[in-house]
Amino acid sequence: MAKFTGIPPITGTIGPVCIYKMYGKYFMRTASSLTGKRVKKDPAFRKTMQYAGLLAKASRIASAVYRTLPADRKQHSLYRKLTGEAMTWLKEEWTVEEVLAYLLKMYTVQPVQASEPETIVVKATAYRQTQRVKGKARRQHKTMAASKPSYHLYTSRYLGGPDGANTFSVIPLQSGGP
Questions:
Q1: Between the CA of residue 110 and those of 39, 67, 89, what are the distances in Å?
Q2: Which H or E run contains 63?
Q3: pTM for the complete prediction?
Q4: Cβ contact 22:2 at 8 Å
């Protein structure tokens, strides 16, 4: 990006050069070959447009929730947080109604008007498969035996003691000294 020292006659694109004003100074750069029409139509940008559509829905949901908030709670950072959270749930394939009901429940004190019993199904997230363990680490991984806890450790952790009661006993240590 080059600075323009004199006052340019115009701002805009002239051939392959783009002239623009930023912070009171003029700059020049080469014009991008990427156009809005290409981003909207080209299959290479299909995911970009899908996420743009999700962001539009998330913004509308966040706006509806934000309008219900009292004036003392309204801050732009909260609106951005609502939009991001709505975007997250839309990516997890929740419906607009489910996301709206959830955000209203979490951020407002108004009861949610639901036509059916209030249940929100949380769908499992899709995790990428981890990379396979290779070589020496794989052999070590295979040869490691899964150790089971002893009966006493198991009962004290999960059942509350050897007889099932929530009691702990102290066993004195034997000293082998003179």
A1: 41, 12, 21
A2: helix 46-68
A3: 0.51
A4: no
